[in-house]
Design a protein that fits this description.
binds adenosine-5'-triphosphate; nucleotide-binding; alpha/beta; 245 residues; ABC transporter ATP-binding protein; ABC_transprt_ATP-bd_su_PQQ; ABC_transporter_ATP-binding; ATP binding
Length: 245
């Protein structure tokens, strides 16, 4: 097995008296797609906030490619691309301007920015929309721009927090296809949170988080076989019930 690209060890986080995460431990391998599944309030957003350093864990540690996030936060942030639950594009800027602004925050040179914007817009079939204002794009295209933006600085890990919420089924399918392709083509690791169980595919690595605790980390197909269950829904229900006890 290759060294993990991300290791989360014994992380705990409370909001005052409210416990959001307790002794959360898991690791991600390079080039794999991980679906983080959990009901509302399970702690998914808190975990993402810690991974992209908006919050500091109160216990435990996060390392990215062996670098401790608490000790070298900037080096770790360079390795992470983030797509938040709420859209964060400026609607009155063009697609290209939104991407260029993000690239400048990451300190990319103008020549490299142009190259990366070209590459990512091509990857997401958006090259013909580069001069259009984001306001004129539909929801699926806006999400694709956000994913392209998160990839500009070539992170090792892409984090997506409920990235397909509010999109119709066929747009969700297209984006999900793109994301799986991204892992196999470019070797990037994806951690994508969802409560939409139908988005999880048999070949995905599955991480189930319930009430701030990890209930399962295993390839989805293997977990179904181990539990003798024939669907992701049944598998999730099983671990959900276990977590609620
Ligand atoms: N700022 C806050 N203050 C107090 N409690 C909070 C705060 N943010 C989250 N919580 C609580 O922490 C727990 C984890 O919340 P979190 O938002 O991380 O879960 P989630 O899995 O992302 O849920 P959702 O799917 O609804 O976004 C929940 O019980 C939530 O009520």
């Amino acid at each position: 097995m290759s060294d993990p690209v991300l290791a989360v060890e014994q992380i705990g986080f409370n909001y005052g008296a409210k416990q959001a995460l307790s002794e959360v431990t898991f690791s991600l391998s390079p080039g794999a797609y991980y679906a983080l599944l959990g009901p509302n309030g399970a702690g998914k957003s808190t975990l993402f906030s810690i991974l992209c350093q908006l919050l500091q864990p109160q216990t435990g540690r996060v390392t990215v490619n062996g670098i401790n996030a608490a000790k070298k936060p900037r080096q770790v942030l360079k390795q992470i691309g983030m797509v938040f639950q709420q859209p964060t594009l400026d609607l009155d800027l063009s697609v290209e301007q939104n991407l260029a602004y993000h690239a400048s925050l990451h300190g990319l040179s103008s020549a490299y920015t142009k190259q990366r914007i070209d590459e990512e817009l091509q990857r997401f079939a958006l090259s013909d929309r580069r001069k259009d204002k984001v306001r004129s794009l539909n929801g699926g295209h806006r999400r694709r721009v956000e994913i392209a933006r998160a990839l500009l600085h070539q992170p090792a890990i892409l984090l997506l927090d409920e990235a397909t919420v509010g999109l119709d089924q066929s747009t969700r399918d297209t984006i999900n296809d793109h994301l799986r392709q991204l892992c196999s083509d470019s070797g990037i690791t994806i951690l994508s949170s969802t409560h939409l169980i139908d988005e999880v595919r048999p070949n995905d690595e599955l991480i189930v988080l319930i009430k701030g605790q990890i209930q399962l980390q295993q390839r989805c197909e293997e977990a179904m076989q181990a539990q003798q269950l024939d669907s992701v829904q049944a598998l999730y229900r099983h671990f959900h019930q276990q977590g609620e006890q």
